[in-house]
Amino acid sequence: MNDRHPDIVSPATVVEASADVTAVDWDWFMSRVRAAVEGGRELSVTAQGRITSDPYRVLVATLISLRTRDEVTEKAAERLFILADSPRKMVELGVSAVSGAIFPANYYPTKAARIVDVSRLIIERHGGVVPADMGALLALPGVGRKTANLVLTEGFDMDAICVDTHVHRIPNRFGLITTTTPLNTENALRKDLPVVYWKEINRVLVPFGQTVCTPVSPRCSVCPLSSGCLMRFYGPSR
Ligand code: SF4
Predict the structure, then answer these.
(1) Homologous superfamily assigned to 54-155
(2) Is 164 an active-site residue?
(3) Could you tell me if 29 and 176 are in contact, meaning their C-beta atoms sit under 8 angstroms apart?
(4) pLDDT tens-digit profile of 125-141?
(5) Is 229 touching ligand 1 by the criterion CB < 6 Å?
(6) CA-to-CA distance for 120 and 151, rounded, in angstroms?
């Protein structure tokens, strides 16, 4: 029987290895992931929050980043914030100019309209100040839990958990959680993950998921977590 997946009966061939598996926990997992990505490129949205401490910039950069490479997001946000760095200035700038500034981010015309719309609503509903509240953020068009949690962590330095595709996939593969949707993953992490790691988990798992534990053909042979990973023992079924 495996402690982390009670429904899985360990095959005799992995008895020795599973003893190692049951010894790992979130501290073990996070320390190894952190070491694996140390020295790598900081995520553009994280950098926005660290450098500016401005939730509005974090929100806009996150809206630009959806389905767009991080290097493209970083430069697009830079160009845009030179022209407008507040909700009022963004509304004055208008959709066409925003669209030109964030090109070639994917879906740039749609994102430009969304950025201006969100900026207008922040003025109308919140006096031009991004709300530090999950419900109020989710009420903005185009803002889902991933974006809202990122604004709370990187914009307001609050303890929240941003679950993107990497944060959902990797702890499931590894065997620390067993969930089928990002919302279930967020709830499981809120229950099990020590709060000290809430802000950090997205920052480290995104680059780890892009370089090592990739969605297709994860690089298990060079992975520093492989000695504790259930997928390595039971195969790529999760
Ligand atoms: S051993 Fe493979 S599946 Fe497990 S965390 Fe590493 S890369 Fe991902």
Answers:
(1) Hypothetical protein; domain 2 (1.10.340.30)
(2) yes
(3) yes
(4) 999 999 999 999 999 99
(5) yes
(6) 18
